Amino acid sequence: MTAPDPPPTTKEGLSAYISTHPSFQDTRSSSSPLPALYSDLSRQRKSNPAGYRASVEWWKDVLLDVTFRGVQFETSDTVQDRTIFTLDESTKARWTIPSVGRPLGLGTVVSDLATEHVAYRVSSFLHSSAPIALPASIIRDRSGGRGLKSYIPTPSGVASTLLLTPAKFLASSLYTLTIGGANDDESYSADEQLFHKNRGEWVLLPLVDRIATTFLARFEEEASISPLACLMTKGEFAVRLGEICEKEFGFGVVGDKDVDVLLKYLSRDLNRAVRQDSLVKIFLQGQSPTRLTAEDMSVITVKETLRKLDLQLISLSQRITSLDSSIKTSLRQNQKQLALTHLRNRKTLQQTLDQRSNVRDKLAAVVAKIEQAKTDVEVMKAFSASEEVLRSVLGRDELRIENVERVMDGVEELVGRQGEVEDAMKMTSGDVDEDEILEELKGLEREKRQEEDTKRLQEQERIPEQNKVNQTDPNPESKETQDKQLEDDLQARLDRLRLSTPLPTSPPPQPKSNTTTHPAHSAIAES
Q1: Where is this region: Disordered (predicted)?
Q2: Which of 98, 290, 490, 519 reaches 20 to 30 Å from 70, CA-CA?
Q3: Which of these, 304, 275, 284, lies nearest to 230 by C-alpha position?
Q4: Hey, is 275 helix, strand or coil?
Q5: Rg (CA), the chain
Q6: Residue 454 gets which letter from DSSP?
């Protein structure tokens, strides 16, 4: 009976990144770029310059990618810095591929990043007072609106670029001539010497610039509402930075070194912040940077106290909830004395919570008044600036009263002269014949009457046609109506005929008799 297969281990950190990156798949294939990428790049510098350049660029992009993703180490339990790459003895081991070996060119890659001012040692970056000149690549990416996309490649994009570009494919073809194995004498390798020389932590400037510029853009949208939002402690800055990074990049916790690096970059290189110990002031676009004043420090102190009170209220509420649960448990277990103790503690905490809530409400009201006063100051500055501009404009010679009156008098005079010119032109255009106008009006009236007569005749011609259409109307109701009218017309005609022609009256009929009438009787009757 065969043993069951062990459950698959869940990869995380750098192992998970390598397992999903196309360039690290099919490492035994002849078309895999890894042999050239993992070789001693210092030897490629002379033997294959094109392949050397392609390999260095690939490593730059990948190192930037794993640093920003926070996967340069094997574990994700601790907070990892998103702007700092660490080069130490364990770096090669983490990047080791069983069928290829360990990367031999990391020292050369980091050295190249430093030469191009893309990477700086953390210590020199934080302690240098001279502003850092941005590399042309960052300026180009900013102007093109691409941010860091040229530095953060998609895995498929890196692999396809490396495999399809002839110069980069040449690096892979010359693998057998340039690769250095694990048994080589590394004491004479230039890359190995650079590796030992460049060990330590390196600030990757493109990553710093991406996070800093994104933070400023999103922070300005929120800070424009509240004038006190720009004043904060270092801890509050870290929280605000984490909130913005969570929305934009998907990681909400920023390391302490990242916070120090970003504050240094904002204050020294972008001139958008000032830091004094643990106090920070951010400047919006167009504002002139100034040092922290005593008023600024007081505002930050009040805000920080308010924040601590909020944390205390949350903690007290949680402890009261826990004591409520303990009291119920003690009563269920008939531990009245213990329940009484919990109840006393709960009462004390409730009193403390009420006191802290009152203090917090009063302090919040003070902060609201300060914010309103700050807004009023800004409004008055705007009024003052507008008053100065209006005074300057009204003080110009063009708007002096005497000049305005002179100009208006001149305009009025010219308008009058223009009217005289128009009147003169009308007089010289000739008199109008009134009789001719009346005759023309009569002609227009005749034309109008003719048009009306023509229209009336057309209407009369259309009436019989309409009647004819009505006679052939298939509607039964209209047919019955027409028959009724025709019957009524016939009846009326008959009535008129009866009245005009009286009918003759006949003599009453004589009764018949079997006796013979005497002629004399008949004659008498007729007479």
Answers
A1: 1-36, 441-527
A2: 98
A3: 284
A4: strand
A5: 53
A6: H
| DSSP assigned state of 97 | B
Q: H-type helices in 32-153, by residue range?
A: 34-37, 41-47, 49-69, 89-94, 106-115, 122-127, 136-143
Q: How far apart are CA 21 and CA 19, in angstroms?
A: 6
Cα–Cα distance between 461 and 466 in angstroms, integer? 9
What confidence category does residue 496 fall into, taking pLDDT thresholds of 50, 70 and 90?
low
C-beta neighbour count of 175 within 10 angstroms:
20
Positive/negative CA dihedral, 163, 165, 170, 171? negative
CB atoms closer than 10 angstroms to residue 184: 14
Q: What number of residues does the chain have? A: 527
Nearest to 206 by CA among 257, 163, 151, 288: 151
Q: CA triplet 38, 43, 44: central angle to 5 degrees?
A: 70
Residue 196 above 70 pLDDT? yes
For the chain, give the mean pLDDT.
Answer: 79
Residue whose tokens read 């030992």: 196
Instruction: Specify the amino acid at residue 514.
Output: N
| Residue 185 identity | D
CA atoms within 13 A on the CB side of 39: 27
Sequence-separated (6 or more) residues with CB below 8 Å from residue 353: 313, 316, 317, 320
- Whole-number percent of the chain with pLDDT over 70: 76
Q: Specify the amino acid at residue 316.
A: L
Strand partners, 101: 97
Listed residue (222, 226, 219) closest to 373, CA to CA: 226
Q: Are 51 and 168 in contact (CB under 8 A)?
A: yes
Distance, CA of 223 to CA of 229 (rounded, Å): 5
- Bridge partners of residue 209, in order along the sequence: none
The dihedral over CA atoms of 372, 373, 374, 375, expressed in degrees to the nearest 10, equals: 50
Bridge-based pairing of strands 200-204 and 119-121 is antiparallel
Q: Report the distance separating Cα 78 and Cα 8, nearest Å.
A: 23
Residue 51 CB contacts under 8 Å (≥ 6 apart), including other chains: 36, 44, 167, 168, 170, 171, 172, 174, 178
Rounded distance between C-alpha atoms, residue 309 and residue 356, angstroms: 7
145 Rama sector, left if φ>0, alpha if ψ -120 to 50, beta otherwise: left
As a whole number of angstroms, the distance between CA 236 and CA 223 comes to 14
pLDDT of residue 213: 92
Q: What is the spatial order of strands in the sheet that 231-233 belongs to? A: 231-233, 279-282, 273-276
Whole-angstrom distance, CA of residue 157 vs CA of residue 164: 10
- Compute CA distances 198 → 78, 126, 184, whole Å: 24, 17, 21
Asked whether 209 and 230 are in contact (CB, 8 A), the reply is no
348: its two tokens: 């004390």
What is the separation of C-alpha 106 from the centre of its chain, rounded to a whole number of angstroms?
40
Q: Where are the beta strands (DSSP E) in 107-214?
A: 119-121, 200-204
CA 80 – CA 455 distance, rounded (Å): 96
Q: What is the mean pLDDT of residues 288-305?
A: 89
